[in-house]
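agent: user wants the full assembly modeled, not chains individually. Plan: 1) parse entity lines 2) check alphabet per entity 3) run joint structure prediction 4) return tokens. Steps 1-2 passed, three entities, 1160 residues total. Proceeding.
--- entities ---
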Amino acid sequence: MAGVRAAAGAAQTQAGVTMTNVEAVRTTLHDALARDDRVLIMGEDVGARGNVFLITKGFLEEFGPQRIIDTPLAEASIVGVAIGMAMEGLRPIAEIQFADFIYPAFNQIVGEAAKVRYRSNGDYTCPLVIRTPYGGGVRGALSHSVSIEALFYHVPGLTILAPSTPADIKGLLNAAIESPDPVLFLEHKKTYRSVKGEVPAGYYTIPIGKADVKKAGSDVTVVSFGYNLHQALDAANRLEGEDVSVEVIDLRSIRPMDKTTILDSVRKTRKLLIVHEDNKFGGIGAEISAMVAEEALFDLDAPIRRLAGPDVPAMGYALPLEEEFMISTEEMAGAMRDLAKF
Amino acid sequence: MATTITMPQLGETVTEGTVAQWLKQPGDSVEKYEAFVEVSTDKVNAEVPSPVSGVIRELIVKEGETVPTGAPIAIIDDVASDVQPAPTGSSSPSEQVAAAAQRPSPSSGQATNAEANRQGSDEPVPGGNVGTGGPSFSAPAQSNGASGNGSASGTAPGGVRTSPAVRRLAREHRVDLAAVRGSGDNGRITANDILAAAQAGPSAGVAATIGADNAEYVAPAATAVAPPAATPRPPGKPTYASARPGDVIPLTQARRIIAQRMVDSKHTAPHAWTMTEVDVTNVWKWRAREKDAFEKNTGVKLTLLPFFVRAVVESLAAFPLMNASFAEDGIHVHREVNIGLAIAADGNLVVPVLRHADQLSIRGIALAAGELIDKGRRGRLGADDLAGGTFTVNNTGANGSILSAPILVPGQAGIVTSEAIVKRAVVRDDDAIAVRSMMNVCMSLDHRVIDGAVASGFLSDLKKRLEAMGPSGSL
Amino acid sequence: MAKTTTAGARDLDRVGLSDEQLVAMLRNMLLQRQLDNRGFQLNRQGKIPFALGSEGHEAVQAGAAMAFERGRDVLVPYYRDLGLALGVGMSPFEILSSLFARQTDRSMGRQFPNHYTNHDLGVLSISSIIAGHCTHAIGVAAAFKYRGESGRAVLCTTGEGATSQGEWHESVNYAAVHSLPIVFLVQNNEWAISTPQDLQMKVANVADKAPGYGLPGVVCDGFSPVTTYAAMRDAFVRARSGGGPSIVEAKCYRFLSHSTDDDDRTYRSREEIEERRKMDPVPRFEQALIEAGVIDEARRKQLRADVLRETNEATDAAEAQPYPPAESLYTNVVAGDYQPWQE
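--- prediction returned ---
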């Protein structure tokens, strides 16, 4: 029954269509289901409800309950069952409804999925995709706002992707589905409908582990992803008017991470600012800082700066609390400006 | 054949075991895998199966006795049993048992931690030669924005703090930090400032007196050694490099030590002085012909220095008293010829030593000297590099000087300078007037060791050798 | 309430098994016992750091293996399933390569002993996380159903301790909801390391929980291979034919400590073990087959000698193999380059 059919379906992308991030997720999933019989989607409320962000609306009717599975409310088994399916040769895409709910599945992701290939020395593999919306700024309070990349990027055997634009989402989600190893695919929920972009038509993948220079510059390097990336681009464009030239790198891939793009940029600008929404202590900015300090110390003309979430649980519900937690575009512009004139 | 049974390791962290009870006695027969002793450890009590079939010959350890893992506990005389397959593998079971018993647990630190013993190449050398410690690399932290994510700390009091990029670029482009105005926050020198200074040209901020290395020998009139451009006072205390009227410049440790040694030298050795002038036209031509190929092949610039030092060591061979030291028990005429090269680095005078210079060709001297000078520039000279000199050479001509009266390095009897090469009209043997490249060679000497005859004989010899060098020679 | 079946001592109810099949089960039990002991022997000799014991489980596993269809069913085992591993086709050499952690071990010496993997035989790779494999078993069964492959079933085995884990509950629940082709075999040996059953659950039988999930559950005598076979056969037939999942709880006993690092004298009495030893399934089944005329004394001796010889040969052969090279540490982390920083 396994096989790949030609793509078909109402949501097929046209040549260079402009769409939002959430639409990019939706159309990519749809095309994958249409193209490959081994692909199925499972999670809470993905079937009849069509996912709480309507990502899979209509899929149940089109592909049937065998392929669009409304699972019991049990994250460990959403992932665990998907692992078994993947080991048996299917290509399941498991959805965790909000990243804040992923913790019961931590056992299965870290203790099992990440190690299937290694512990069997390749006798078994685990081609599993786990998709989940993450991030705050949506009045989500303390259980619908968290960033989780720092908890997982540490783990050998896992791939962690976090594209920020529609075109990157399509390319990397396809790459994730194609990957023979487990991938955690992170979607910043605040960008679902607020970020629009042009998406090339047809099937394509983007290589995993490659960052993207979204804006070239010469005075300061900024590395970011997710919602912060778009704020960084806003801030950088603003600073062009002040004659400060900022280069903005979109990480896209958290594990593996793109060393070459980051170092090339740092060697050019000599100043590095890392921006991530997650708590600062032990966030991915720490690993990037360490790598750059190890490999490019004598190219740095200023200390490496990290602009990151405060070290408190993410994030309070009341608007002033949320705004205090989230990094504002003004803060980013200020940090870029300071670094440029250091 | 007999097999010695050793105490097995029962558990990963176990290091010893106690024989709780012998289940067999000497003379008893035992089958392979049959239990023959009960052993107890702090983790577990267990019956140990025999690795061989045979007859118990000896029980080495008494019941209740505790021995370390791997210690012999019994001897069994092997007898093949009918169920026994032919043994495979080369090691006997007892060796295997012993080997397995010796297997260390991961926690037993068998990895040796060999810490690299770093010679303090940037620590002051005992005895007072100049240290080349580099300034601190850290740049002042900036105060951050409202998110409160940074620490605010100002520039450290006193001293210029420079970033790694700035120090590296300054070295690569040979820019004198002291002469650069900082355009960054709080007057910090930025990488762009260094790059701009490097492009502005060698005069503004080029390190002066880098000794006999890349300085071309040109007549003083052509050398535009411009005074440093007037720069605004950098923040912080006055420094030697940026001295102004009214400053009181604090003494660095290095300067203090050098000062003392110079005083000692002058007060101990009666300094006499002499000079000669040398026609270096031919040797200069020779150098000009070789330099491009030399630099292409070795990456090292070919200056007059290696030719000069080669001539010096040959003359020292002819006049060994020049390579000596005065001591109460006599004048020590040295076997080794170790030539000190006076260079300036980071505003200090250092004299790294070219050891066994007499055994080096011109090419060899060029490479070895190049390495020392580069080390000196990078502040990487070690104690070994600075010790053991027997005679010293100083290229004062790089500044444009035509006469110098150098101070002896304590313990040495002579020091020569190569002064600037000046084109002069000279009268030749046949009374014709020619324009020749002339270089003065000056010498200070310890008059306790060297008298006038030796001194002038040496200098004449040196002059002859230098004037005999020419393009037909080999490096 | 759960159904129970037991076997009598004298009149052997073959439940349709032939002589060859009965002898095959006996041989599996003897081989399991021999290999199991060999692990402990090698550890006490200081040759291997660790071994797990499965004495007491021989009948359950021989019976379950007999009901398993090679080439069609998939086994998702736990770490005490030596007999099942042998019963579905793994070799003593493979087992010993795993104990010695040699290069010939399929996991290349990466896994603890008894953590098998054999994709060709349908043995799923597992971790040491108790009940971590249960959801994977569900996934495999779901894949069978997804592809419309009838006639295939998954055998998911655990001890009784694992049934306290949340993921076991999630798995049983999921299997029932989606009517998956899976058999949950719970080998109740009364002890989860040092925790007795009455500290693990309130009910007397794990199988009593089954109706709570909406699937059938039976208790069987885990000391009788034939009885276990019969219960397992029924469960497999149900699963393979689309009848959905069921729980088979086989009552047995763990005669040894949990592993070579455990000393059961700290938590249970010698008297209890001696009392339970009387029901040791291996000599009892030997005796039952002799009394039923399936084998005679000479055959019994010969079977034991064969099994010892096979074990010894495999021991020596495996011990002579090299360790995996240190460089192998870095392979098979992911399909491509394992380095987290990509150039």
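agent: reporting back. Residues 16-199 of chain A form a domain with the Rossmann fold fold (CATH 3.40.50.970). Chain A has two domains: 16-199, 212-341.
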